């Protein structure tokens, strides 16, 4: 079952949450990895505005002649993603943070800054591509910073995991006033859950 984030589920989420959610159906035997290849992660970085077409073209050309570099970067990205997932879930359940996951996150925080830097677009601060040779690992640094800010800030307790019974597993930040959000998206998992409950109630009445 292919999974594409709905606008509600993705447009407002933290960068680090979006990154973790590149794995769909985490709580099922067969997961869906949306950045399983070097091309797919380049597209994700473009969509997340952590790279522009110039950077993507540079990396694509380098990786074509050096597939080992592409594999190394992809492994680093996957490693960071799984470290963040472990840390967020530990925060959600009140468990102890995995020291290895903490080390992986710290490693990403310590990478160089070549590739992206903080800049302005009008009155808005955002990550912008920089001139010069791209350091691929540096493209992951804003994701690591996003995670640290969320994990150590006042919104840490708002991080939750979708309770969809099919095994969605996506994370989200609960910004609802009542702090009772249960699903990654009302337009997707939430509506399906309500439909299932309605069907079960109707079946119970008929019996």
Q: Can you offer a commentary on this structure?
A:
By secondary structure, this protein is mainly α. It has one domain: Jann2411-like fold, CATH 1.10.3300. Helices cover 50% and strands 11% of the residues. Strands 1-2 form a two-stranded antiparallel ribbon. Strands 3-4 form a two-stranded antiparallel ribbon. A hairpin with a 7-residue loop joins β1 (23-24) and β2. It is globular.
What structural category characterises the helix and strand content? mainly alpha
Number of helices: 8
Shape: globular
Strand content of the residues, in percent?
Answer: 5-15%
Radius of gyration based on Cα positions:
19 Å
Low-confidence stretches: none
From the 3D structure, determine the CATH topology. Jann2411-like fold
Strand tally: 6
List the helices and strands in order. HHEEHHHHEEHEEH
> What is the CA-CA span between the terminal residues?
32 Å
Mean pLDDT: 85
CATH architecture: Orthogonal Bundle
Secondary-structure map with pairings?
Layout: H1 7-10, H2 15-20, E1 23-24, E2 32-33, H3 38-47, H4 53-65, H5 67-93, H6 99-109, E3 116-121, E4 124-129, H7 141-152, E5 159-161, E6 171-173, H8 186-206
Antiparallel strand pairs: 1-2, 3-4, 5-6
């Amino acid at each position: 079952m292919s999974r594409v984030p709905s606008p509600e589920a993705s447009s407002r989420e933290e960068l680090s949450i979006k990154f973790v959610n590149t794995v769909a159906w985490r709580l099922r035997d067969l997961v869906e990895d949306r950045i399983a290849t070097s091309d797919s992660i380049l597209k994700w970085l473009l969509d997340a505005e952590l790279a522009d077409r110039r950077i993507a073209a540079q990396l694509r050309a380098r990786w074509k002649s050096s597939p080992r570099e592409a594999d190394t970067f992809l492994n680093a990205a996957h490693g960071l993603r799984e470290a963040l997932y472990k840390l967020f879930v530990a925060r959600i359940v009140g468990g102890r943070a995995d020291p290895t996951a903490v080390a992986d996150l710290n490693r990403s925080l310590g990478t160089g800054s070549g590739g992206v830097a903080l800049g302005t677009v009008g009155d808005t601060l955002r990550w912008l591509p920089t001139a010069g040779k791209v350091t691929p690992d540096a493209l992951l640094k804003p994701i690591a910073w996003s995670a640290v800010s969320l994990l150590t800030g006042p919104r840490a307790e708002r991080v939750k995991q979708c309770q969809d019974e099919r095994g969605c597993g996506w994370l989200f930040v609960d910004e609802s006033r009542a702090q009772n959000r249960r699903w990654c998206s009302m337009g997707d998992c939430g509506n399906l859950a309500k439909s299932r409950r309605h069907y079960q109630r109707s079946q119970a009445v008929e019996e």
